[in-house]
Amino acid sequence: MTSAAVEQSVTSADILPEDMLRADMYGFLASLLRGEPSDELLNTVVSIKGDPSAIGSASSVLATLASKLSGDEVRDEYVRLFIGVGRGELLPYASFYLTGFLNDKPLADLRNDMAQMKIERVDGVKDPEDHIASLFDIMSGMIRGAFGAPTDLAAQARFFKKHIEPWAPLLMQDIEAAKSAVFYAPVGTIGRAFMDIESAAFDMGEAG
Amino acid sequence: MTNKEEKKGADDRRDFLKKAALSVAAAGTAAVASKSASADEALDTSGTGYRVTDHVKAFYKSARF
Fold first, then answer.
1. Which residue in chain B has the smallest CA separation from A57?
2. Cα(B40)–Cα(A25) distance, integer angstroms
3. Are B40 and A121 in contact (CB under 8 A)?
4. Contact, A138 vs A132, CB < 8 A?
5. What is the pLDDT of residue A171?
6. Which residue among A48, A120, A204 places its CB closest to the CB of B25?
7. Predicted complex ipTM
8. Model confidence at B5, in pLDDT bands (50, 70, 90)?
9. Which of A42, A45, A94, A135 has the fewest CB atoms in 10 Å of its CB?
10. Tens digits of per-residue pLDDT, B53-64?
11. Which residues of A touch B8 (CB under 8 A)?
C-alpha cells in the first residue's frame, strides 16, 4: 500500500448512519472489554440514557451501576472476570471458546486473515489477537474505514461469521451469568443483543 | 441475484438496523469511540490496539529522530 492509499480514508459522511452506530457499538463494547475501565470511560457510561429496547434497558442498568459503583470496584470486577490470579473466571478468546485451548487454530486463522487485511498488533500488546475486544476493534475499524480503506459489507460479514459469530454470543451469555459479574452483567446483555442484531442484519444483506 | 433484489436486501437491512435502537448506547458511546480513536492515533499500547501495518510503519518513521 502506498502512502497515498494510507492517507485516503473514508470520512464519516460516506458511511451510513446505521453503520456508524454499529461501529460505535463495537467500539464501546471493545473499550469496556479491553481492560480495566478508566474513570473517564465510566463517567461517560453514567451519561448513557436508556430506552425500552433490550439494549436500551440494559444500557440504563449499566449507567446506574456506573454511577453507584466506584471505579476501583468495577476494575476489581474486571480483574476477577477476565484476568484473575492464574486465570480469570472467563477466558474471552475465540480459540478457547472454539477448541478449549488458547492459541490454537482459530487464532492462526485469524492471524492469516489479519495479515491479508494488513492489520497487525501494536508493538507492546501481548494479548493474543483473538481476544473479544480486539475482534470488536477490528469490526469497528472495518466499518469506519480506520484501517485506511473502507470494508464492504460482504467482507464485514465474512469476518463476523468466521471469527465472531461462532462464539461471541456464548461469551456474552457467560458474562451475564458469571459469578463475579455485577457491572459486566448488563455489558453481556448488550453484547448478546447486539450479536443477534448483527447476525440478523448480515443475513438480510445476503438474502437480497 | 438481480440488482433490484440486491437493493431490497440492503433496504431491509437498513430498516432493521434503524429499528434496532442501537442509537441508545451510541448517544453515550460516540464520545468513547472518538476518544479511543484518538488514543489509537497516539499508538496507545495499553490495550489490544490494532491498525493497518503501514500506519504503524508511518508512525515509527515519523517518530525517528
1. B24
2. 17
3. no
4. no
5. 98
6. A48
7. 0.75
8. confident
9. A42
10. 444 333 333 333
11. 208
Residue A55 in this model has a pLDDT that exceeds 50 = yes
pLDDT of residue A184: 98
Q: What is the DSSP letter of A126?
A: -
H-only helix segments in chain B: 3-19, 23-41, 53-63
Which value, to the nearest 10 degrees, does the dihedral of the CA atoms of residues B17, B23, B24, B27 take?
Answer: 160
CA dist A147 and B51 (Å) reads: 6
Residue B41, C-alpha cell as written in the block: 492515533
Q: Are A8 and B9 in contact (CB under 8 A)?
A: no
Q: Which amino acid is at B14?
A: R
Question: What SS3 class is residue A125?
Answer: coil
What is the C-alpha separation between B40 and A41, in angstroms, rounded?
15
Q: Does B41 touch chain A (CB under 8 A)?
A: no
CB-CB contact of A190 with A117 (8 Å):
no
Contact criterion met (CB < 8 Å) for B9 and A205: yes
What is the spatial distance between Cα A207 and Cα B7, in angstroms, rounded to a whole number?
10
The reported pLDDT for the residue numbered B25 is 54
Q: List Cβ neighbours of A183 (8 Å cut-off, separation of 6 or more).
A: A62, A65, A66, A69, A73, A74, A77
**Chain B partners of A18 at a C-beta cutoff of 8 Å?**
14, 17-18, 22
How far CA B8 is from CA of A65, A136, B14, in Å, comes to 41, 28, 10
